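Input (structure):
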């Protein structure tokens, strides 16, 4: 899509842009953290239950995230398209885009289910430890079904975020996070009269809470935003709107797959080193992913603000929003990096049972990995921010190519070379991750600022 932006449209100053971003970003960040807490709670409880089961969950989550994130591209495409249409006052277009986003994600979910439900054999063929592979297969045999409600949640998140109803996302996500913690604790350990199901208990809890979240967000959207009539002709295909969501969404899915696939593949590489390094890798990555939620929320807010600027023809506001978001992201990165450097042992120790004999080794290996995570925080934040801004101006194909080059052309090969040929093991694998993020951040930021200069001149 090409749009002429008015170079002289009135725009907010940098300070006002930062405040506007934060008003939208803070509830998104908090809802991201609450959503992440669902999985982190499971990892924390599983680490206290059994380290081998924890390694199995890490492995299972790696595959699930690959499948989920690819389908999430269609959901993510809904956000900039709805933000722009709403800014133009086109309620019908908002409904059409959202409805076809739901269609595409449901269709994708049904196609992806077999790979999740039959994953145990796949992990064994990949050379993973048989005990770890068994735990992973048992988990996804149940939790794999949550791909359907999880992707519905993703579409509704995009719809509500684009319309600046992020507070509802926060409260619904906090509610299901609390529900998940209670269910997982009861079903993993057999508390409060529930059976002790171990890793299967975590799977049932995740499935139940995702289903509850989808129902709650749908109910809120119908109640608070009746003017968009989301259920009107829900069953009717709309090839034009579906084409728009698909064309914008598949590169987003590809970009997400390239990035998350790199981290998932790193779990496979570290799994070749051993179960304890894999458990340490999983915990360190959980902490890095937790802080990443700050940058993700800023990126999502930047997508909405950029989409709104596109809809109202405000080129200068687009650039100022980008500058404000960059400063906020860099500041957040410095704070989280400091925490990783100053308190690695304390952060890692939360995830492992004090009585577990593997605890000292897990913390020792994880502390080194957290130092590397501190290094890549800035670049991870910048690359996801640039992606969010580019999505807002509906530029997704070239960012996909950049991501594929950075993560798979450079990152994964270097992770293997540094980890196994150079003998760096898990540290070498993580050095490959750092290098890929540095390259991606640089190329994507250059792409956005070039597009920001040119877009106002495009007819």
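Output (sequence):
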């Amino acid at each position: 899509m090409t749009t002429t932006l008015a170079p002289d449209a009135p725009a907010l100053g940098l300070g006002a842009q930062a405040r506007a971003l934060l008003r939208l970003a803070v509830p998104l960040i908090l809802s991201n953290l609450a959503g992440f807490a669902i999985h982190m709670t499971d990892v924390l409880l599983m680490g206290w239950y059994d380290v081998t089961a924890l390694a199995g969950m890490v492995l299972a989550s790696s595959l699930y995230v690959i499948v989920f994130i690819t389908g999430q591209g269609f959901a993510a495409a809904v956000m900039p398209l709805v933000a722009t249409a709403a800014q133009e006052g086109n309620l019908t277009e908002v409904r059409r885009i959202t409805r076809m986003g739901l269609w595409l994600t449901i269709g994708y979910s049904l196609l992806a289910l077999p790979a999740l439900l039959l994953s145990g054999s796949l992990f064994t063929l990949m050379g993973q430890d048989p005990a770890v592979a068994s735990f992973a297969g048992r988990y996804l045999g149940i939790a794999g079904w949550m791909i359907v409600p999880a992707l519905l949640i993703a579409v509704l998140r995009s719809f509500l975020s684009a319309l600046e109803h992020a507070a509802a996302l926060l409260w619904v996500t906090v509610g299901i996070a609390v529900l998940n913690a209670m269910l997982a604790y009861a079903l993993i350990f057999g508390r409060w009269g529930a059976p002790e199901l171990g890793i299967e208990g975590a799977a049932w809890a995740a499935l139940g809470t995702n289903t509850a979240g989808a129902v709650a967000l749908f109910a809120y959207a119908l109640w608070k935003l009746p003017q968009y009539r989301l259920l009107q002709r829900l069953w009717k295909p709309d090839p034009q709107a579906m084409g728009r969501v698909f064309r914008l969404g598949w590169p987003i899915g590809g970009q997400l797959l390239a990035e998350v696939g790199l981290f998932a593949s790193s779990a496979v590489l570290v799994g070749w080193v051993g179960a304890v390094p894999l458990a340490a890798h999983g915990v360190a990555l959980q902490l890095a992913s937790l802080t990443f939620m700050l940058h993700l929320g800023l990126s999502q807010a930047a997508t909405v603000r950029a989409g709104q600027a596109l809809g109202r023809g405000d080129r200068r506001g687009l650039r100022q929003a980008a500058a404000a978001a960059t400063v906020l992201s860099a500041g957040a990165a410095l704070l989280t990096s400091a925490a990783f450097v100053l308190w690695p042992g304390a952060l890692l120790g939360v995830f492992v049972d004090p009585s577990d004999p593997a605890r000292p080794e897990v913390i020792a290996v994880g502390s080194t990995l957290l130092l590397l995570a501190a290094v890549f925080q800035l670049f991870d934040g910048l690359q996801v921010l640039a992606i969010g801004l580019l999505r807002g101006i509906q530029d997704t194909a070239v960012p996909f190519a950049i991501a594929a080059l950075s993560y798979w052309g450079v990152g994964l090969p270097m992770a293997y070379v540094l980890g196994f040929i150079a003998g760096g093991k898990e540290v070498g694998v993580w050095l490959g991750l750092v290098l890929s993020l540095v390259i991606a951040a640089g190329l994507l930021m250059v792409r956005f600022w070039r597009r920001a200069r040119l877009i106002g001149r495009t007819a």
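Notes: Residues 1-11 have pLDDT under 50 and may be disordered. The CA atoms of residues 57 and 136 lie 6 Å apart.
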